[in-house]
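ugh ok fine here u go
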Amino acid sequence: MDKEEAISKNILLIVIAVVAVIVIGAVIVLVLYPPHPDVVPQFSANVETSGNIVYLYHDGGDPLYQDTTIIRINGLAIPASSAVFLHGQDWPWTAGKTLQVTYPGTDPVQLVQVIYSSGSTQELVYSTEVQGPQTTPIPISTLETQVVSPTATAIATIPEATGPIETIATPAGPAVPQPPVPAFTASPLSGESPLQVRFTDLSSGIPTSWIWNFGDGSSSPEQNPVHTYSSPGVYSVALTVGNAYGTNTRTINDYIAVGAIPQANFVGTPREGAAPLTVQFNDLSSGSPDSWIWDFGDGDQSTLRNPSHVYLNPGSYTVSLMVANAFGSNTRIQSNYARITETVTHNIYLQNSATGYLVPDGYLQFVVGSPAGNIKIAGHVYQFQEGDKVQLFLGDVPAGEIDVASSGINTFYFDGVRMYVNGILVERGTVSSINVPSFDGLVSTFSIQIPPGDNSYTLFVDERRVIPSTGDFATFSDLRQDSSGRMYYIQKVGTLTYVGGAGGVQIG
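structure:
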């Protein structure tokens, strides 16, 4: 009997010990992992933004748990699992901890809300309108944290989508630590090399380190460095600033322009000859000019880099060239640079050449008088203005017709014409008619060539009959009006006729 009582007592003690262990374990679990209170938490917070990054600082009140917390930014729900704590902290979210949330939208952050979600219940526990990012964070060590006792008025039901959202005011708290925001200026921004530039740091957020990249392979750790650019060019500048919370970089592309004032120089060929003389001018300037102004000394100018100019009248002409770029201008003047002599015009009568042709790529030039007249090109009538300088360029010309008299330009019929007016290409195509009653300064670079073996044509030069030999090659250059003011050219299939003037005649 005594033995049975002893066994019963031992079993009872074992049961009591097991129960005690279970109770103690439950207490430990409750202490270490307390259950979420099924009451709406009440707390206050402070919000700061940096671009699309939102910092939420728990400023006092109840803890919040990951599985019952939803954050809304501009009405967009962001799960608490997408938020991270600064300084390696973790849930629950208690006073003194800062959450960093990335807003995936493109609009500025304007409204931040914290939602308590439990089952089918969702309650708004915090809401604030963001006025804009604080550009200069306030050091935490200079502020005292204000803890506000939770009250029932801090809770609001989530409003319907069509109704206004209640904003709960919160007391100001310390700014969330964040990297500095870089900004800078420089002076001067352009000039001749070597160019010394002073850079000034304007960054906010209390940076403690600076790294400048000047774009020419050089850098500096100084806050306000002075840098000398020794080579011409356009340079982008970058500044990286940092502090204990990170770094940021700002780059300004093509910020510093370093160069030199160009030095004008040029050449023209030929420099001497009979009028009309076409001179090709070529720019030889140094220093990378980007604009040119030529003065040919006869009243005409050009802004082309390498222009061609026709001198119509005899004389000595002073030529100047002004070149410029962003750093300044320079002018070169050469006196008596072009010498134009009196021209000799030969009267030509050429009829029925079987193989003669007009050499391609020549042009007819004249200045429109009054009344002005017009031309029909590419199916359109172009009305000239008094004083227009007109150039009619030909390409390959198997056939065509010109009729110029002292009474005006009456015919110009060719395909593939390029028409320039005052140096500007205004039209290209077939010219079917022209009527210019008054003109001045008519010249051309047209030439007629007759290969050897053509014995079918009749030729008079200055009223004297010329009979070429079988092996002669005939060239009539610089076609123009003859002594009577006539210039008539017509070419059809198998026949060419010309009655007019020529600056040069070569047979042989």
